[in-house]
Specification:
The chain is an all-alpha fold and about 120 residues long. The chain has one helix spanning about 10-120.
């Protein structure tokens, strides 16, 4: 704690000291105001930067979502076309299977008729 002489006994040095104190307080107050103004302008600049960065990120995310959605739709169309193609192949294979089964029955019948004409006895019967 600074000790002051009583006001009634001000000497030259204590008067000068009071003036100095008032000047430093005034300077400190001005510096504080300047610092507050600087901080406020910095805050405004940071808020502006933050908003711009947020807008850029939002724009990027939206563009990426659209790209992913287009790619997803394209893949759905490719899958649908492939499913259609595979269904057609399955149907064709089923038709071929039926034809082969019919041909096998016809051949079996012919073999049996041929064996009967020749007089062949089936060993496995």
């Amino acid at each position: 704690m600074i000790r002051r002489p009583p006001r009634s006994t001000q000497s030259r040095s204590s008067a000068a000291s009071d003036v100095y104190k008032r000047q430093t307080q005034s300077t400190w107050g001005q510096n504080s105001r300047k610092e507050i103004q600087t901080l406020r302008s910095d805050l405004v600049a940071l808020e502006h930067f933050n908003k711009e960065a947020s807008n850029e990120i939002t724009k990027y995310v939206m563009e990426e979502m659209l790209r992913v959605e287009k790619e997803f739709k394209r893949l759905l169309n490719v899958d649908a076309a492939e499913n259609t193609f595979l269904k057609q192949q399955v149907n064709q294979l089923n038709q071929d299977k039926v034809k082969l089964q019919q041909n096998a029955l016809i051949l079996e019948t012919r073999v049996h008729e041929g064996e009967t004409e020749v007089g062949f006895k089936n060993v496995y019967d």
